[in-house]
Write a structure and sequence with these properties.
Number of helices: 14
Distance between the termini: 63 Å
Largest sheet: 5 strands, antiparallel
CATH architecture of the largest domain: 4-Layer Sandwich
Helix content: 55-70%
CATH class of the largest domain: Alpha Beta
């Protein structure tokens, strides 16, 4: 089913356009039928060479030449024109052309007593199988072919055996009945396919609308400023084709508190986008209204909101999230997410800070799992946050990019401006992976030197 649709291009038909859809199939299949015609008609001259009297070969060749020429012209016309409700007429023309040629040749080979009539069976079956028209057309087409056979031979006035004629007509009509039956079933299946494709298109459009909405929610939640006093910040998110649920935010409150949050909602679609929106709203409310609050307290508040609303949504989503509060000489971390990688400028090496805790949205009380971890930061130190779309990027051999490669890249590019550093890492991951299957997010926070901080 998918192959047929692929050959005709994207499926863009509404439920009341079956006839238009059928015409497009008929027009497309007619090209193949015409190609078979101008290949097989001259090829069967080989059979004529062995079974016909030598004096009739020239006439047979002339018949086949004219018939082939007509089919070629018809093929060109089909290729140059678009499908229409009259496309099926080409099927009748093919039958009249090739069927008429064979009927005339039966006259030369002995009339009704000639076994050459068997070629008409091929025309009846070939046209019926090669065109997706209705059973009524198949029946009418078969009657035309059989009528030409009877008419041409009766006009010729040759003697014939009644039993042989009855035998020939019996087989011709039997073939016609088979052809009509096949076309009836085929037409029914095509109609079923059409309405299945209509439903599939509706589902596809609904899905893409939902994914587009989810992507708009995700991008709308991204911070419009990447700036915190005393720190240099750069962030980048490369969305996957299907929204993967990555989220980050950079916040500096009116009282001067500095926060960075990063997380990843399980699943895809609008529900994930709504959970991101709930998390951001809860975080902003908490940090703006509670000065010097702990990251663990922020996450407990977010969990309460998400936990209640997930049950209302009737979904089973959860969210990994890490909240970091930055002070002049230290940062406080809470939440279960990917490890934090810190490049220690003075030591010229990286340090890994594992995150502890649990996911948000799976338990009502997560306070017992959360700890506020204090980590010192010196001038020039660079903190790198990331989502699993980076480390779990997979190459053609099924190998993951991994955290070790990410650490090596951070060490290698640490002296670059942090915006270019992130660009280099993203470029490396894109080159490494065979296909992007998840959102890729990086956030870099660099502690400015005291002189730079004062100048800024």
């Amino acid at each position: 089913m998918s192959k047929i649709n692929k050959n005709r291009g994207p499926f863009n038909f509404d439920a009341d356009e079956f006839e238009k859809y059928l015409s497009s199939i008929i027009h497309e299949w007619l090209k193949t039928l015409a190609i078979l015609g101008f290949i097989l008609v001259p090829t069967f001259f080989i059979l004529d060479y062995f079974i016909m009297p030598r004096e009739l070969l020239q006439r047979s060749g002339a018949y086949r030449f004219v018939s082939t020429l007509i089919v070629i012209i018809q093929y060109v016309i089909i290729r140059q024109t678009k499908a229409s409700k009259l496309s099926y007429i080409h099927g009748y023309i093919l039958s009249l052309n090739i069927g008429g040629m064979i009927a005339l040749m039966t006259v030369d080979l002995g009339g009704f007593d000639s076994s050459y009539y068997a070629g008409l069976n091929l025309v009846i079956i070939g046209v019926s199988l090669g065109i997706a028209w209705k059973a009524l057309h198949s029946a009418f087409n078969s009657i035309i072919i059989i009528s030409m056979y009877i008419f041409f031979n009766l006009i010729a006035g040759q003697d014939y055996s009644h039993p042989i004629l009855i035998n020939n007509l019996f087989f011709l009509f039997s073939t016609a009945i088979i052809a009509v039956s096949i076309n009836h079933v085929k037409h029914k299946l095509i109609k079923q396919e059409f309405f299945l494709l209509v439903e599939l298109r509706k589902a596809r459009d609904a899905l893409w609308s939902e994914m587009e909405l989810a992507k708009r929610i995700q991008t709308a939640l991204l911070p419009d400023r990447e700036k915190m006093e005393g720190f240099e910040i750069a962030a980048t998110m490369v969305p996957a084709k299907e929204v993967g649920g990555d989220y980050y935010d950079i916040i500096e409150t009116p009282t001067g508190d500095k926060w960075v949050t990063i997380g990843d909602v399980s699943g895809h679609g609008v529900d994930s986008g709504l959970i991101m929106m709930m998390a951001q709203t809860s975080i902003l409310s908490m940090v703006n209204n509670s000065s010097d609050c702990k990251p663990s307290a922020v996450l407990q508040s977010v969990n309460s909101v998400i936990r209640e609303n997930i049950s209302r949504l009737g979904s089973e989503h959860y969210m990994t999230m890490m909240a970091i509060r930055f002070d002049d000489s230290q940062m406080t971390i809470a939440g279960k997410h990917q490890d934090v990688i810190i490049y220690r400028s003075a030591l010229n090496k990286t340090e890994i800070i594992p995150t502890k805790g649990t996911w948000l949205g799976i338990d009502d009380n997560i306070g017992k799992y959360l700890d506020d971890v204090l980590v010192s930061i010196e001038d020039g130190d660079l903190v790198l946050l990331f989502t699993d779309g980076i480390t779990e990027a997979i190459d053609k051999n099924g190998e993951m990019y991994g955290q070790e490669r990410l650490e090596q890249s951070l060490n290698q590019y640490a002296d670059l401006p942090i915006g270019k550093l992130l660009d280099r890492i993203i470029k490396e991951v894109k080159v490494f992976q065979e296909e992007q299957l998840d959102d890729m997010t990086l956030v870099a926070i660099k502690k400015c030197h005291s002189t730079e901080s004062k100048r800024s």
